[in-house]
């Protein structure tokens, strides 16, 4: 298999090219810029036939993608933090119109204070927009994630947009080996899009986004809710097929690492889980029976897999590189909610880590492990939410 | 139909109202849930224009000014109002040079 040493951003750009996207509309923002620069380079070099629409803002970028997708094209964009926030309104239009747009969001902290470093709050703040969310741990997963995202999004039972999410700098600007299958094999995995509808069918003119009165709106929301449920099956099927074709299996929406016999596990999303896996290896040598659970898909949320996992462990340390002010870490909040009506009741503690790019190291994870062990032995929490790095 | 210049004519008469009785009957995507052929927009008004043909000089200024447009020209050349769409804004009455159109409070 051809391998390239690329940054996370270049991995995203190559994936978009290999997915044969037809329209890209984007606006540059650090640390996303090199994704769309690379795509522009592909076009300039004649390596890809993509209609590139330079726009004046992220709001317009998403609007242009919506138009392209509604016309039947495979559309792609990328953004980060403030840019994603500016897109917010259009994100609802994309999902409501059931358009399988794929976007890479480079997780970056929201300002103020101004920051360009890794933080998941930007993407998690878009939780309720009807977009699926895939969190990549490494550059390979950025690449694979984009390819799978199109296949899941365009599935006839889904038709919803996907956000593929990577960490600022930790992935976006860090070079790593990425395995890229030959184009014909990718074409076999990802055939051309078959749109559910197209606004360029001039024999059957139609409009999307027109008024629905209280008599009809409700049913369309239900349709989206059901499509999201259906998407879980599709994600597992597509992840399995990806594994069979390319050797990397993504059939699990939560990837488990040494979790089978673990007393407690670390749960989190994105690049920080790479550090966690390394820490698990170290902790195992030190006699800790620990494992890791990496939540790949945050939307749709893998409720069933979380339950299966939670009923077999005594504790879950949820590592949130994000925070919902007035509440707690967002993954922690979701995970607790899933388990409330079940018989799985592990001790759960929330560690707020890495906000605004604060480094999370193996020794940090070891300290968290010591704390979790104490809590489990004592049988009760010291506190529910811990601002782990806080200078005291 | 002796309507000469109504935008919809027979199309409107033939158009069927879409009624979805269960969630399964709905389309997957909120595409055109019926156009204004079935969704009448004239029931929001308080006043309606009434044309006095004795005063009308067929100048069609009202027809030009109607923003909907819900004024059409009949076969005999006089104007008439399509009340399915007229929102009762009163522009026609205001513009009419012979005061052939008066706004009347609609009784329902």
TrEMBL record, chain A:
Entries under Gene3D superfamilies matching the protein: 3.40.50.920, 3.40.50.970
Entry keyword Transmembrane: no
Domain Pyruvate flavodoxin/ferredoxin oxidoreductase pyrimidine binding: residue ranges: 15-239
Quaternary structure annotation from Swiss-Prot or TrEMBL: Heterotetramer of one alpha, one beta, one delta and one gamma chain.
Organism: Thermococcus paralvinellae
Top-rank taxon, per record: Archaea
Name used for this protein in its record: Pyruvate ferredoxin oxidoreductase
Domain Pyruvate:ferredoxin oxidoreductase core: 262-365
UniProt entry keywords in alphabetical sequence: Oxidoreductase, Pyruvate
Pfam families: PFOR_II, POR_N
Molecular function GO terms recorded: oxidoreductase activity, acting on the aldehyde or oxo group of donors
GO-annotated biological processes: carboxylic acid metabolic process; response to oxidative stress; sulfur compound biosynthetic process
InterPro entries: PFOR_II, Pyruvate:ferred/Flavod_OxRd, Pyrv_Fd/Flavodoxin_OxRdtase_N, THDP-binding, Transketo_C/PFOR_II
């Amino acid at each position: 298999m051809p391998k390239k040493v690329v940054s996370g951003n270049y991995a995203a750009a190559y994936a978009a090219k290999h997915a044969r996207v037809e329209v890209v509309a984007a606006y540059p923002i650090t640390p996303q810029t090199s994704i769309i620069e690379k795509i522009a380079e592909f076009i300039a070099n004649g390596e890809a036939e993509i209609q590139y629409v330079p726009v004046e803002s992220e709001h317009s970028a998403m609007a242009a993608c919506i138009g392209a997708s509604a016309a039947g094209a495979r559309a792609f964009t990328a953004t980060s933090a403030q840019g994603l926030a500016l897109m917010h309104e259009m994100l609802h239009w994309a999902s409501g119109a059931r358009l399988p747009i794929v976007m890479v969001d480079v997780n970056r902290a929201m300002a103020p204070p101004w920051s360009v470093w890794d933080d998941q709050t930007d993407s998690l703040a878009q939780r309720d927009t009807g977009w699926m969310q895939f969190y990549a741990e490494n550059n390979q997963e950025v690449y694979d994630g984009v390819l799978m995202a199109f296949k899941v999004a365009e599935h006839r039972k889904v038709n919803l947009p996907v956000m593929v999410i990577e960490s600022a700098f930790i992935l976006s600007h860090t070079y790593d080996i990425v395995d890229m299958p030959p184009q014909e094999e990718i074409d076999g995995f990802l055939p051309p899009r078959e749109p559910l509808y197209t606004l360029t069918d001039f024999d059957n003119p139609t409009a999307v986004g027109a008024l629905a009165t209280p008599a009809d709106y409700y049913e369309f929301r239900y349709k989206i809710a059901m499509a999201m449920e259906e998407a879980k099956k599709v994600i597992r099927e597509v992840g399995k097929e990806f594994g069979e074709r390319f050797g990397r299996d993504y059939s699990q929406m939560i990837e488990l690492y040494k979790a089978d016999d673990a007393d407690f596990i670390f749960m989190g999303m994105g690049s920080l889980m790479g550090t966690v896996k390394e820490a698990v290896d170290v902790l195992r040598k030190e006699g800790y029976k620990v494992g890791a659970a990496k939540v790949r898909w945050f939307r749709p949320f893998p409720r069933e897999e979380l339950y299966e996992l939670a009923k077999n462990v005594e504790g879950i340390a949820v590592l949130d590189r994000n925070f919902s002010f007035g509440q707690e870490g967002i993954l922690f909040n979701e995970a607790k909610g899933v388990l409330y009506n079940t018989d799985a009741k592990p001790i759960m503690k929330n560690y707020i880590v890495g906000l605004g790019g604060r480094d999370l190291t193996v020794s940090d994870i070891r300290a968290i492990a010591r704390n979790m062990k104490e809590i489990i032995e004592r049988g009760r929490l010291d506190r529910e939410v811990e601002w782990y790095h806080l200078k005291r | 139909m002796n309507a000469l210049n109504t935008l919809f004519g027979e199309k409107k008469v033939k158009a069927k109202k879409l009624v979805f009785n269960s969630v399964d009957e709905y389309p997957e995507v909120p595409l055109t849930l019926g156009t204004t052929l079935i969704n009448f927009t004239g029931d929001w008004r308080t006043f309606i224009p009434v044309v006095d043909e004795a005063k009308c000089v067929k100048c069609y200024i009202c027809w030009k000014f109607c923003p909907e447009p819900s004024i059409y020209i009949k076969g005999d050349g006089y104007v008439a109002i399509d009340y399915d769409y007229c929102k009762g804004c009163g522009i026609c009455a205001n513009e009419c040079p012979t005061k052939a159109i008066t706004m009347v409070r609609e009784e329902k």
